[in-house]
Tetratricopeptide repeat protein (Kribbella qitaiheensis), 414 residues
Amino acid sequence: MTDDRISALRKAVETNPDDVLLRLVLAESLVTAGETEAALDQYVVLLDQQGVPDDQLVTVGELAAANGRLALLRSCLETARQVGVVEGTGRLQQLVDEMISSRSGVKVKLGPEAAEDLAGDVSKELTTFDQVGGMEEIKRVIHRMVILPLSRPELYEKYGRRSGGGVMLYGPPGCGKTLLARATAGECGLPFVNVRIEDVMDPYLGVSERNLHAAFERARANAPCVLFLDELDALAFARHKHGGSESRRLVDVLLQELDAIGSDNDGLLVLAATNAPWDVDEAMLRPGRFDRVIFVPPPDEPARADILKVLLKDVPADELDLSALAKEAPMFSGADLRALVERSVDRVIDEALATGGEPPLSMRHLTEALATVKPSTLDWLHRVRSYIEFANQAERYDDVAAYLRSKDVRRRLS
Ligand SMILES: Nc1ncnc2c1ncn2[C@@H]1O[C@H](COP(=O)(O)OP(=O)(O)OP(=O)(O)O)[C@@H](O)[C@H]1O
Ligand SMILES: [Mg+2]
């Protein structure tokens, strides 16, 4: 399948979005061409259109599992249940279980058995904005949107402006969403209750909902605190996109919990993060819920230099030109930069072992390691661009659109 053929198919699908067979051919061609992420995006739509043939549900589910797409995998499972593909259901359930348990190194149970820990002490978060390199603009936005309303509630009350509601951070993987959420708690001097998807999701009927409710209870017992929902897309998978009753129940519980903010959620600041905002149920974004949405882009050049400085703080090193290095690492995420630093340090350790000395980290180690790390943000940016162009979601992604229009980014993505 040539690129031309695929782009012709893409155009045809854009013109005829409801032509299920055409979309299926596109999805299959993308798989053959190795464009797996793009193919899986098509399968998300196809499942919504009930356009995935029954005998392909397992194959699609396996592909989703192999690519870490839990939400898609779950929706394959639910479709298989609905259409009564018995064997397929078993296999897909097994994949879901495996994926959930592989994500949780140590499974932290938030269920009823954790009830007695509920009132237990959750200590104050120590991470602060100092540990977040660069991102000055985002820090300012968070300060205005989150920290100020929390520290000066009387000001907001006076002008009749609500200070409740949640904040959703979204952007490419590894660019500091989780770190920023933690640091926000630290800046507010509040404890951080991290609700990871693997702590909530449970294959047994009704247990995920109970876990989610327990997480909110735990946070309330420790209020004031920051409750953080990581991978919001998996918790709040767009319900219009598939009819599964199971994930709908989870979405409903989450909506109920969010709507309680301002009443019995007083002192609870809810932050969430996702790198698949297009999969998040619209209902989550209504006023009073996650009504403040912040795009966390890949760090720019000065931010990359700053992040490198933070990451290298405790490493014995020569004089380093971090600005030069940041320049040579376009589109790198914070996580990519961390990989770069770790690989450089590995080289230093290898040398130390070989020579018996204790050489400092030098520019040479860093530039050698740089050749082995590639930026991991490009896939995401390509995907969001096609959502903006083709899925009529432009107004939702204004900040991203502005970012994509900048000259440097346009050049990197073309
Ligand atoms: N601005 C930054 N300053 C310092 N370190 C950073 C920064 N951004 C990212 N990092 C490093 O990269 C790691 C990954 O960042 P983080 O987990 O916050 O990304 P994320 O956006 O939540 O990614 P994901 O979408 O995969 O959950 C952090 O633990 C940190 O070491
Ligand atoms: Mg994260």
Summary: The mean pLDDT is 84. The domain at 112-295 is CATH 3.40.50.300 (Rossmann fold). The chain has four domains: 3-103, 112-295, 301-370, 378-413.
